[in-house]
Amino acid sequence: MTALPHGFIPVMLTPFQDDLSVDFQTLRKLCDHYIATGAVGLFANCLSSEMYELSPEERLEVIKTVVNQTAGRVPVVATGTFQGTIEEMASFSNQVYGLGVDAVIILNNQFVSAEESDAVFLARIRRWMELTPGVPFGIYECPVPYKRLVSIPVLEELLATGRLCYHKDTSLNLAQVQAKIQAGKAYHFGVYDAYMVHAKASLAAGSMGLSCIQGNFFPDLLADFCLRPSEDFQAFLTDTMELMHSAYPTSAKYVLQKQGFPIRLATRRKVDPLTEQLKAKLDKLLTSASQYQSP
After folding, report:
1. CA torsion, ordered 211, 216, 218, 221, to nearest 10 deg
2. pLDDT tens-digit readout, 72-97
3. Contact, 42 vs 278, CB < 8 A?
4. What 8-state DSSP symbol labels residue 139?
């Protein structure tokens, strides 16, 4: 198993038609857009993709479309564990891997309740691994339905299997990120940070890159920041973080639209409305971001 590349791996949006069916034509264009703007990989079927609002069949079709459209240009990872028994999650993970992804992402909050111990989590992960032989995997500390952080002892045990290659960290804690980076130094493994307040420091500490929602507003700027992190853009990310979380992912689709990408605002997730006031703020965001874009 080889490590995923250094740089920006976007948490992909799912485009929808006005009737809320998946817009596969625009999804293919979106794959090309991410890659053209500098993404080094794609994370399909994630929270930004509205994975919980997709049916199992739609999840597989979305992943298949992304893998086929990407055609090996960059690695693709995709979520493969949802509610159900360990056997059911493993079966779906095997289906996802069979579509040609480079790694299956597991949601650690699907294996145990918030009250259950790390020992229980590890026992269930070991069973999942027995049922998914040879499948490389990553862990996403997804905040929905609840956030469960990966402890260093858990991470060390999973790294020792040689199958863990990707970790999307949502701890919001730089010391935790640094500890995870240190734990994974001897392995083909990368931490991709989701928290933009310490993005520059995370990259300096050795994180493999970023997997953050901000890249669905400005994928080119996030890709460039991973290569050339600057204090100015770090301040921009920090100052605008709350705004970019407003009415997300509708807000990201609006900003992409304003930049000329042909995506509808339709979303299945129930989010705050995209009011005229919010649109005005997002328009100002676009103007502010333009100073960081190459001429």
Report:
1. 20
2. 999 999 999 998 999 999 999 999 99
3. no
4. E
Instruction: Report the distance separating Cα 175 and Cα 47, nearest Å.
Output: 25
Residue-wise pLDDT for 97-123, tens only, equals: 999 999 999 999 999 999 999 999 999
**Length, in residues, of the chain:** 295
Report the C-alpha gap between 165 and 159 in whole angstroms.
8
Concatenate the DSSP letters of all residues of 14-53 into one string. --B-TTS-B-HHHHHHHHHHHHHTT-S-EEESSTTTTGGG
* Overall pTM surpassing 0.85 (yes/no): yes
How crowded is residue 293: how many other Cβ atoms within 10 Å of its Cβ?
11
Which spans in 160-263 are helix H? 174-183, 199-205, 219-227, 231-245, 250-258
Q: How far apart are CA 169 and CA 5, in angstroms?
A: 16
Tell me how far apart the alpha carbons of residues 139 and 135 are, in angstroms, rounded to a whole number: 13
Sheet with 137-140, side-by-side order of all strands: 7-8, 209-210, 190-193, 164-169, 137-140, 103-107, 76-79, 42-44
